[in-house]
Amino acid sequence: MFEALSDRLGAVFRSLRGRGRLTEDNVRDAMRQVRTALLEADVNVEIAREFCDHCVQKALGMEVIKTLQPEQVMVRAVYDELVALMGPIETRIPFVSQPPTVILMAGLQGSGKTTTCAKLARYCMLRGKKPLLVAADLKRPAAIDQLEVLGRQIDVPVYAERDHQQPVRVCRNAVRESRKLDRDVVILDSAGRLAIDEELMTEIAQVAEATQPHQIYLVLDAMTGQDAVNTARSFNERLELDGVILTKFDSDTRGGAALSVKKVSGKPIKFIGVGEKLDALEEFHPERVAQRILGMGDVLSLVEKAQQAFDAGEAAKANEKMAKGQLGLDDFLTQLEGFRKMGPIKQVLKLIPGLGSALGDLEMPEEELNRFKGIIHSMTPGERRNPDIIEASRRRRIARGAGVDPQDVSALVKQFLHMRPLMKQMAGMGMGQRLKMTQQLGQMGMLDGRIPKLKAATTRFDPRRRDRKRKRRR
Predict the structure, then answer these.
(1) Does pLDDT of 364 surpass 60?
(2) Which end of the chain has the lower number of beta carbons within 10 A, N or C?
(3) pTM
(4) What is the CA radius of gyration of the chain?
C-alpha cells in the first residue's frame, strides 16, 4: 500500500536537497508535485488541493531551525498534515460493561465482509473476549457455509438459522442466544449487494433498529479507490457508522481511499486487512501510516509483530546463545520461522526506518527460505549444532538429501558462519541499536549481496551433470 505515493514523495523531497533555504517559490513548486502524486494515488481532488494548501501554509509558517534542511522542513509539514487528514482515531473497540457487545458489519458484496467478521472475532479473542459469529447474510449462496468454515478455523461458534430467510429475526435471536452461551461479543454478518440499492439499505437499517448494535462498521475494498469513499458516504446517510474497515490494504499501491475516506465520510478507519489469513487484521494508526508513506519505517508495528510471532522464553534462550556465540542452525531455523510469521519478508523489512528505500524493487523469494529449511533438515543434529564440521563429503550427502547442489549447501553454511559473529555482537544491543545496525547493513548493500546466493539455490541437484564434470576433469 502507498508504494507509488511513497516513491513520488521521496523524489519531491530529494529535489529540495542542496537548496540553501526554503522560499515560497520552491515550497509551492514542491507542493504542486505532491498534489500530482496524490491525484495519481486516487485521492479526492478537493482533498488533494486542500491538503497541499495546508502544507504550504504550515511550511512557510514554521520557525526554521538553522540545523534543519529544506527537505526536512517539508517532510515535517507533510507528515503533520497526513496525520491530521487520517486522524485522530480511537482504534480500540469500546466493549460494554453489560455484555454482549453487538457489532454490525455492513458492506457491498465482494468487499471481504464475511472473512473480516472472522478476523474481527479472532481480534476480540486475543483480548480475552468470547465472540459469537452470526450468519445473517441470507442472500449470497454458501455465505452461511463460509462463515461456519471460518468459525471452525478460529474455534468460534456460529449462530445460523437455515430454515428462515428473515435476517432481522436471525440477528435478534442470535443476540438472545449469546446470553445463554455466555458470549460477550456478537458479530453480525449482514448481506451485501453488488451495488448500493434501496433493498440493501432498508434491510440493514431494520437489522440495526432491531438489535441496537453498539458498533457499526462498514467494510470497504481499498482497491475500489474513490468508489469506496462514495460507498462510505451513502451508508453513513442511512446508518450511524462508527468506523470503516479497509480490506485488501496490501494489494493496492495507490492508497487514495485510505487518505480520503475520513475527510469525505467523517468516519475513521478503525482496522485494515493486510492479507488473506485470519490473523491479517491490524489497527489503523494514522501516525504509523504517515511514517510508512514518508519512508520513515514503523518501529512500533515491527515490535508488535515480533511480540506476537516469537515466544518470549525461546527468544531469551536464543539471545543467550547469541551472546555466547553458540547459535546453531537449529536456532537459526527457529528464528527464521518466527520471522516468517510476522508476514512477507519484504513488508517486514520495510518497517525498519531507512531500509524500505534501500530495498527498492528487490524481491525476497519465500521459496528460497523453504529451500534453506530443506538443507538444514538434511543435516545431522551434530552438524546443525556445529556447522564448522561440514566438509566436502558431508556437503555432498546433505545436498543429495535436500535435492540441491553441494555449492548451495556450502553457500548457506558460509553465510551462517559469517553472520554468527554479527549476531553475537547484536546480542548485547538494545532494540534501537539493532534496528540501526540493520538499517546500516541495508543501506550498505549487504542485503543485495545475499539475494544472489538465495537465487543460486534454485538449481536442483543433478547426478548426471556431476558425472559430466568429473569426465571433463579427467
Answers:
(1) no
(2) C
(3) 0.66
(4) 27
